[in-house]
């Protein structure tokens, strides 16, 4: 059995290739049972989360990701999310590879948002607002830049020093990135607004949004968390990565549906529908679109397969 390190996985998963791998797996499908979601007490500090995420393509590959989410980890100098993926032969069950899950999770999550933006953001989107400064933030920026002609990136975070640090990192990669102080002003100027936070209170307000924008929400992975208010999902056409995940776990959709501010049928399509042509995605330049993701095991499977096959197998 091969062991693919974080460095090997990072090199294998370039965003143009990974976006297309995700497009293909959503188009072709894979078996994906509901993921196991367990709360792990953590005293003192915020409780952690244990996720077990299996998926397989009959006769080809079987994958299972074991992931943990501990919100207090950044204060310890550790990433919030840690994971590994075990990839097996789909015909024999033979273990093929243990794939470093940290870069795989970050990259497949960002690639899913980029895939959605390919259907939902205006083709000429040039200004990106990145809300959040954690480990996911630079990946989200790189992924969006792979599918849209982004010319400027504004970075907002609760800690200005972290926003400056992220902007410096992106500038070092040749991107035109700048920290900003006002989130509302940043929203007003953005074509694409990408949020990667652990927020439990709305950050993006619907009254700030204007026609033509695309809102990408990848934080708020629990029903108790959210990055937008009710007004945001009311003024936008709403999409998600999978109905099964986003309508159960994504607080940005769960909370307004529970309150009656949003109806289930108002969530127009998921990535299965978009990639299979069952829904056209954005239909007009003046439309506001909103995409909520909570992650899916078939994304991990697609990324693990790509990394494994590029490792010389």
Automatic annotation (TrEMBL):
GO terms for biological process: carboxylic acid metabolic process. One of its GO terms (molecular function) is oxidoreductase activity. Keywords: Lyase. GO terms for cellular component: cytoplasm. Pfam families: OCD_Mu_crystall (PF02423). It comes from the Bacteria. Transmembrane segments: none annotated. InterPro entries: NAD(P)-bd_dom_sf, ODC_Mu_crystall, ODC_N. Gene3D superfamilies: NAD(P)-binding Rossmann-like Domain (3.40.50.720), ornithine cyclodeaminase, domain 1 (3.30.1780.10). Its EC number is 4.3.1.12. Belongs to the ornithine cyclodeaminase/mu-crystallin family. PANTHER family: KETIMINE REDUCTASE MU-CRYSTALLIN. This is Ornithine cyclodeaminase.
